[in-house]
Amino acid sequence: MIIQLQKNIDKTKFDSIQEMLNQNSIKSNFVKTQLNDYLVCFSKTKFDIRKIGHLEGVQDVHSVTDDYKLVSKKWKLTNTTIDLGEGLIYEAGNPIVIAGPCSVENEKQMELVVEHLVRNNIKIIRGGVFKPRSSPYSFRGLGIEGLKMMHELCVPHNIKIVTEVMQVSQIEEMLPYVDVFQVGARNSQNFNLLDALGSLNKLVLLKRGISGTIDELLQSAEYVFSKGNEKIILCERGIRTFETAYRNTFDINAIQVLKEKSHLPVIADPSHGVGIRDHVSKLALASLVSGADGVIFEVHPTPEEALSDGQQTLNFEESDKLIKQIRALRPFLISN
Ligand code: PEP
Ligand code: MN
Q: Is 185 inside any structural domain?
C-alpha cells in the first residue's frame, strides 16, 4: 500500500495515521522525495485501504501488491515526465535522443562529436569517463579530467551530459559537471550506489543488469525513488542469454512490459543491446516503434579507432541518417 501524504503534513495528522497503521500491524516507511511525501506500507494480512483514505493528511491511498511500490504503475497511472530544462522533456510520443562515444578519449574527438550533435540539434551527449571494462588492461577512461573537458565543450551549446558513475565516492566530484548519472549494467544492483543517487536531485539513468530481470531493474529503481529521488529513467540494454551470435540479446519485449509495470520513462540502448554496428540503427528504430521514450546510442568520428566499443559505434554518416529516420518516425509513434 502507498499512502500519498499531503505535502508537509503536520505532526499530529502524521502521528494519527501512524497510529492507525500500528493498530493494524502495518509496517511503514516514510519517503520524502523532491515532489511528494509518502508512506510505503507492508502488511502480512489483507487490509482495507478505505480505513486510511478518510484520515486527515492523506491525499490518496493505493493498494500496490508488487515487490516494488513507488515505481509501480499500480498507484500512478499517468506516465512520469521528466524535464531536463531547455525543452527537453521525457514524455510519451516525444522520443529523446542521447548520442556520443562510449568513452571520452581526447579533446579533438569530443570537439568533433559535439559539432556533430550541434549539426543535428541533439541536446544530450553520452560519454564515459569512468569505464567498467571486463579486462583491467583495457582503457578505463580519463576520469574526472575527461568529464571536465567534455563539460567545457558542451556548456556553450547547452548540451546536457549523461555519464556513468561507478562508485559512491565519485559522485561529489562529478556532481557539478553531470546532468544525468548513468548507472551501468554492472552496477545495476550496487545498492549503496543506488541509495546515494537517491539522495540527489539529479536525473538517474538506470540500466538493466547484464543478467537482470525486469523485476530486479524495477526494484533497483525503487532504491533510488525510496531514498527521495523520483527522477529516474529505465534503460533496456540487452541481457546475457545462450545466444552468442551477437553481444547481448536486446530484449525489445522489456520495453512494453516495463511501460506496463512502471510509470517511469523507458529508453533503449541498441548499441550495447546488439553490439554490432550494422544492426544498431534498425534496432534503435524498432525500439521506438515498440514504445521506448528515447534511445541512447554510441557515435564516434572514427569508430575503428575507438578505445572502447568501436564495433558497435556508429560513424557520423550513420548517425546523421539514424537521427533523420527517428525524426521521420515521430508522427507514427504511439504514445503510451
Ligand atoms: C556504456 O554505456 O558504455 C556501458 C558500459 O553500458 P552498459 O553498462 O550497458 O554495459
Ligand atoms: Mn560502451
A: yes
State pLDDT tens for residues 242-294.
999 999 999 999 999 999 999 999 999 999 999 999 999 999 999 999 999 99
Which atom of ligand 1 lies closest to the CA of 308? 3
pLDDT score for 83: 80
Q: Yes or no: say if 216 and 183 are a contact pair by the CB < 8 Å rule.
A: no
- Ligand 1 proximal residues by C-beta, below 6 Å: 102, 128, 132, 184-186, 207, 237, 269, 272
Classify residue 132 by burial, with Cβ atoms within 10 Å: 0-12, 13-18, 19+: middle
CB 51 within 8 A of CB 16: no
Residues 130 and 170 sit within 8 Å (Cβ to Cβ) = yes
The three grid cell numbers given for residue 195, joined into one nine-digit string? 541509495
72 belongs to a structural domain: no
**Best substitution site from 124, 131, 140, 207 to test ligand 1's pocket, by max atoms within 8 Å of Cβ?**
207
pLDDT at 334 over 80: no
Tell me how far apart the alpha carbons of residues 132 and 322 are, in angstroms, rounded to a whole number.
27
Is there a single domain that holds both residue 156 and residue 267? yes
Give me the domain span that covers residue 23: 2-62
The mean per-residue pLDDT over the stretch 112-119 comes to: 98
Paired with 273 in beta bridges are none
What average pLDDT does range 233-237 have in this prediction? 97
Helix axes 144-154, 107-119, angle to 10 degrees: 40
Mean pLDDT of the chain: 95
Distance CA(52)–CA(29), nearest Å, equals 16
Alpha-carbon span 213 to 292, nearest angstrom? 18
- The helix or strand, by DSSP H or E, that contains position 296, with its residue range, turns out to be strand 294-298
CATH of the domain at 23: 3.30.70.1140
Burial class of residue 60 (count of CB atoms within 10 Å of its CB; 0-12, 13-18, 19+): middle
